[in-house]
Specification:
The protein is mainly α. It contains twelve helices and four strands. The strands form two sheets. Strands 1-2 form a two-stranded antiparallel sheet. Strand 1 and strand 2 form a beta hairpin. It starts with 6 loop residues before the first helix and ends with a strand.
Length: 317
């Protein structure tokens, strides 16, 4: 049939099809615009509206605090790039909705326990936010084989006093890993005398930060030109600290009953080899899943205990 159509007729039909499609497209766009919103968006795409109108838009920009600190060390927000770097990390975490919600929930369980250990080692409380950005408070393994909440490498973990074998890996124990991290943080502070630099060194290493300082003749983290990951690192900690301390300000409405609480536990001291941890868990009135949940440092289905050794196994009470 197309062979019988004249060029003029074909063009007319094509024009009608395009026009009809455009009309449908415009009607679809209007159906997704809240009443009145077409009047509050300027030519530059900037929202020109009050609070009620903002409630109808999918995303907003948040004000960053006028002043903010990390470990009682002021962040120099008067430096434009510093202000923008913090702004970026705040915006990113505000719109990682599900991830940030679960961070807030898990933080309620773990941060109070970590605070006690940080205090024991005289480490500023703000370092409790470091494992949130390292691991999301999950026992994950990085591509570089850093493990656990604090993302500790095997060699570093052993140097910091953690037991790491085929059957036992204390990097997976959130509280023992916190103790190990505190030892590193204290050593780094003795080297740098500055907690912000200590935090950055947890990402790049003490040697890496020392070389950057020497090469660039700078002493402040905020004045150093660094690789992207380390350049963002401290700002990520500060941003998640700000959101967790002021969730409603950044659009998070968390019902207190939805927060995760510390679970009551009792402890069993073991000084003899356990050949089958499945049988052991049943003898304690729980299943193997619960044993592993509360003792993720147990890496096999048996636990070899050498003469003179002792392990504490957590059992939900």
């Amino acid at each position: 049939m197309l062979k019988d159509l004249t060029t003029a007729t074909f063009i007319s039909i094509a024009t009608l099809v395009i026009l009809f499609g455009y009309i449908i497209y415009q009607e679809g766009r209007q159906a997704h615009v809240a009443p009145g919103m077409e009047e509050v968006i300027s030519d530059e795409g900037v929202i020109e509206a009050g609070t009620d109108d903002l409630m109808r838009v999918p995303a907003v920009s948040f004000d960053i605090p006028e002043t903010i600190s990390f470990a009682d060390e002021s962040v120099p927000l008067n430096i434009p790039d510093v202000r923008e770097r913090l702004d970026k990390e705040l915006q990113i975490n505000c719109y990682l909705h599900s991830n940030t919600i679960f961070l807030i929930k898990r933080a309620h369980r773990w941060l109070p326990q970590m605070e006690k250990i940080l205090k024991k080692y005289n480490i500023p409380e703000d370092f409790k936010y470091l494992p949130l950005i390292e691991s999301n408070l999950l026992n994950v393994t990085s591509p570089a084989n850093a493990v656990g909440y604090w993302q500790i490498l095997s060699t570093s973990g052993k140097e910091l006093g953690l037991e790491i074998t085929n059957e036992v890996d204390e990097r997976y124990d959130p509280l023992k890993a916190t103790e190990a991290a505190c030892k590193y943080l204290r050593t780094a502070y003795n080297k740098f005398g500055n907690w912000t630099m200590v935090a950055a060194s947890y990402n790049r290493g003490m040697g890496g930060m020392a070389r950057a300082m020497a090469d660039q003749h700078e002493k402040s983290y905020y004045d150093l030109y660094l690789n992207d990951e380390t350049s963002r690192y401290v700002f990520r900690i500060i941003a998640i600290k700000e959101i967790i301390n002021n969730p409603a300000k950044y659009g998070f409405r968390i019902n207190p009953k939805h927060l995760y609480n510390e679970e009551p536990l009792r402890y069993v001291d073991v000084n003899e080899t356990i050949k089958d941890l499945v049988d052991f868990s049943r003898s304690q009135g729980i299943n193997y899943k619960l044993l592993k949940r509360h003792n993720p440092w147990l890496r096999q289905e048996r636990l070899t205990v050498k003469r003179g050794e002792r392990y504490r196994i957590a059992i939900p009470s």
